[in-house]
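Continuing from the previous page...

OK, I double-checked the sequence for YxcD family protein against my notes and this is the correct one:
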Amino acid sequence: MRLSEQEIINAICLHMAERKRLQPNQIEVEMMWDEDYGFSAEVLAEGRSQIIIAANILEAIERYLLTQQNVRVFRDQIHLQLEEEIVADINV
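Thanks. Re-ran it with the corrected sequence; updated structure tokens here:
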């Protein structure tokens, strides 16, 4: 199974909205990749910017797959990849 960058962003929006008690459309996400630091995302909510690391992204993907697609996966099954966009390959 593969999630596109937009699906990863949706997962982060849903996850952060739940944690911050906001609506998902109140969250903006920009995915990032850095040679030294790897994958991360900038999350903008209520005028505040926060950088989340790969572990947070994987947590959001886990939760998204469970709540939206009824698929239970663990972090070691999710692999973020940089192609033309950032994607997540999931071994199910």
